[in-house]
Amino acid sequence: MSKRIAEKKALKVEMIDGKLLLKHATEILAKEIRVKIYVNNKVHGIYTISDNMINEFIYGNLLTSNIISSPEDVKDIKKFNHKIYVTVENKCTKSIVKCSSMLNISGVKLLGAMRKFNEKALEFKVTGAFHSAALLDGNMLDFIVHIEDLSRYGAIDKVIGWALLNNIKLCRTILLTSGRVFKETIAKVAAADIPVIVSKAAPTYDAVCLAEEKKITLIGFMRKHRFNVYACPYRILEYSKTWCK
Fold it and tell me: Half-sphere exposure of 86 toward its Cβ, with a 13 Å CA cutoff?
């Protein structure tokens, strides 16, 4: 069994024909860790995440927080239990600009990718507690990396950090997420220069406004046969063919 999950006894309660039926059962639950990150000896943040891919989380989090722009910006990482001390020589001062990627993607293929994305969520199926994030290649829509984490932001930071450490051009990728899309989610996507984010859940009004401002294609409520495009639909191939003639 993964170190990220564990078994615990539980009492299961169910109403049948107006009466409560109680029975003992063994449930599989998600385990969590709480990490505290220091950057140049100053507290950067405290995060509750799953205990895996910690380096990837650090790099992804620092990139999406606009503290670094490349792995070379990180000079040293020291870990003491769940305290992480990061030394950054030159803190990133880049401003988040509008995404200029002209990626053109098939909505039909995106629907197929979301079905595969849901199938990959194995720990969610066992526990109901995990979020998922994945990066797709923007051309073929093949999966580059898929990660489950207790935190929606933890999963996003980990896939971005993995891509950063593996020299993946994020401007040519698509981010899939299982969670609701908040303004902070879009800020992370913009900082990573990812042009498209797709969720099976809802975005907030503020997330849509920021996506419009940063020229990020935002897709929500992607289900079996449908989805909504809330910002920058021009990157959807079918939209370009049908509405832009």
Answer: 26
Could you tell me the pTM of the whole model?
0.92
74-80 vs 83-88, strand pairing mode: antiparallel
Does 65 map to a domain?
A: yes
Which of 219, 222, 220 has its CA nearest to residue 232? 219
pLDDT, one tens digit per residue, over 91-132 is: 665 555 566 777 889 999 999 999 999 999 999 999 999 999
User: 219 and 139 in one domain?
Assistant: yes
Q: How far apart are CA 194 and CA 217, in angstroms?
A: 9
What is the C-alpha radius of gyration for the chain, rounded to an integer number of angstroms?
20
Burial class for 131, CB neighbours closer than 10 Å (0-12, 13-18, 19+): buried
**Six-digit token string for 242:** 């049908």
- Count up the domains in the chain and report the number: 3
Q: What is the pLDDT at residue 241?
A: 58
Question: In terms of residue numbers, what domain contains 173?
Answer: 107-243
179 occurs within a structural domain? yes
As given in the structure block, the two tokens for residue 205 are: 């009004």
